[in-house]
Amino acid sequence: MLCRKKNMKHYNIPIFVPHKGCPFDCVFCNQKHITGSNDDINEEKIINIIEEYLKTLPKQNCIIEAAFFGGSFTGIDFDMQRKFLSTAYEYVKNGKIDGIRLSTRPDYINDTILDQLKKYGVTTIELGVQSLDDDVLERSTRGHKADVVYISVELIKKYGFNLGLQMMTGLPGDNDEKALQTADKIIMMKPDFVRIYPTLVVKDTYLEKMYLNGKYKPQRLDEAVDLCKKLLLKFKEADIDVIRVSLQTTDEISPGGSIVAGPYDAQFRELVESRIYLDKFSVALGSFKGKDAVIYVNTKEISKATGSKKQNIKDIYDKYKIKVKIRGTDKIKKGEFYLSYGVESEEADCI
Ligand code: SF4
Q: Domain 9-266 - what CATH class?
């Protein structure tokens, strides 16, 4: 098994198989817009994509996987899966990449499929779980119930693949409580990593119709940030990597692209992590006696700790009437902080 080493840089070579193999139409999905690609993929294109990426990626001290994303890979015609996989597998065999990963639906997993994936060097399988609430799954026309997810996860683990689980927030019929329960159930399944996607209303989807007819109300940005904060903390506590929060920005998934409504922000994850810092600062500042404070954080986390447009500094002042300066030091781990009275310490050693 290819292990996800936390301190080793990981690169995916994305090969999109938009809507190939998926006869379903989940209300939120228009893979053409979500992946920003509607080209049909073939072996020649796969080779070109891998070659182009390999020119730009480091050759050592990193893990590189060819990643079949979009659509539902294991729903593609079985022979076509084999052609795509064997093309990428050549690069595994010659040592240019470390493995192959793919994303698929939970109900497109069985022994025959997994046998083939194993044979052709697949290392990581990501399942689009989205929710583990049957009502939410039904209203999102996912075409399967939650129980399928547990069966597929068990099978994938039995074969020894790395397992990623994707969940969404703000789907039709969903709420914070259900999303937190979904996270708890995901944690119980012990995936190697998780992705969290707040639902966006994308052009040419059924969700767009529901939204325009007043039958669907998207999460507000602040609501989605607040919920994702709770989810991120839950997964962190369970020591499960969250490798992405929100869809990747593309020409389509960006202002002026195909987003009709929903909690989009290009820096969504940073907003979530800023909010986590604000909560931690608030607890410490609740008993702070001074009027000026210096908060030391890891140098790489200054912008998160300060918040977008210094929002955290402003919020702290509004709530506690304390003027805060954020300073960076390498002596503090990411996510941690040290609070001192308003004299900046040269001696970060004491931290
Ligand atoms: S299963 Fe995946 S690819 Fe298929 S419609 Fe749903 S979200 Fe889109």
A: alpha beta
